[in-house]
Specification:
This protein has 2 domains: 195 residues, 2-enoyl-CoA Hydratase, Chain A, domain 1; 54 residues, Helix Hairpins, CATH 1.10.287. The chain is an alpha/beta fold. It contains 11 helices and 9 strands. Strand 2, helix 1 and strand 3 form a beta-alpha-beta unit. The two termini are 31 Å apart. The chain has a 6-stranded mixed beta sheet, sandwiched between helices. Pfam families: ECH_1. This is Crotonase/enoyl-CoA hydratase family protein.
């Protein structure tokens, strides 16, 4: 199976495993990856997903060998609707996803990482629009998400040149949210996922969706949308549990213990 789906408590760990092509994605892999995230979305017991690649490599993007062979069963789909060429990149999930990046996250692999909410990158990770070298366009949201994540200037630097940037430069750009030693990205991503999963979920998810939905709205509509998300959260009663926790003072001790290894 090119995609592995495992659970660790409330965390889903989704792994791309095609070592012979640096975890590049063909059509069956894209379908399996999208289906894995649909399964994560449906499972109420799961709060956060971690996306990673096997054997110290995140993802080399679309499978160029399959594209060159022209096998219609394996070439990534480029239709205007449905899933993106590398799978889940047109989805807006209700729950967060963290990318654990070792090795190369390039071309469609970079677009996958940019689709995730957060990116934990190893120091020797490499991000880049490598498809620039082969005349292949970004079609999994890269031209949109990169500009939104790191600003238009940094995004154009990557999009126009196709150069690779190291984990350190990616961290300075704001593309990587956490920079960790080589071989430790998955460990740190899971720890971060557990921290996020431990928070009250209704407010967290509502605020997250509001932050995504505001991009296509006017300021007035975005503020109204935020209000509706907030009211839906208040209706769950979650806040009262939080206020009770605050009143006990126990949260002070818990917060001190919550550290990422």
């Amino acid at each position: 199976m090119p995609i592995h789906f495992e659970t660790d408590g409330s965390i889903a760990i989704i792994t791309i495993d095609r070592p012979e092509v640096a975890n590049a994605i063909d059509r069956p892999t894209a379908t399996a990856l999208a289906d894995a995230f649909r399964a994560f979305e449906r499972d109420d017991a799961l709060a956060v997903a971690v996306l990673t690649g096997a054997n110290g490599k995140f993802c080399a993007g679309a499978d160029l060998k399959a594209m060159r062979e022209g096998n219609t069963e394996r070439v990534t789909r480029v239709e205007p609707d449905g899933d993106g060429p590398v799978g889940p990149t047109r989805m807006l999930l209700s729950k967060p996803v963290i990318a654990a990046v070792e090795g190369h996250a390039v071309a469609g692999g970079l677009e996958l990482a940019a689709w995730c909410d957060l990116r934990v990158a190893a120091e020797d990770a490499v991000f880049g629009v490598y498809c620039r070298r082969w005349g292949i366009p970004l079609m999994d949201g890269g031209t949109i998400r990169l500009a939104r994540l790191i600003g238009h200037s940094h995004a154009l630097d990557l999009i126009l040149t196709g150069r690779g940037v190291s984990g350190e430069e990616a961290f300075r750009m704001g593309l990587a949210n956490r920079l960790v030693p080589k071989g430790k990205a998955l460990e740190h991503a899971i720890a971060l996922a557990r921290e996020i999963a431990s928070r009250p979920q209704a407010a967290l998810r509502g605020d997250r969706l509001s932050s995504y939905q505001q991009w296509s709205l006017s300021l007035a509509d975005a503020l109204t949308n935020e209000y509706h998300h907030g009211m839906a959260t208040l209706a769950t009663g979650e806040m009262f549990t939080g206020l009770d926790k605050y009143a006990t003072g126990d949260w002070k001790h818990t917060e001190r213990k919550e550290t990422i290894p």
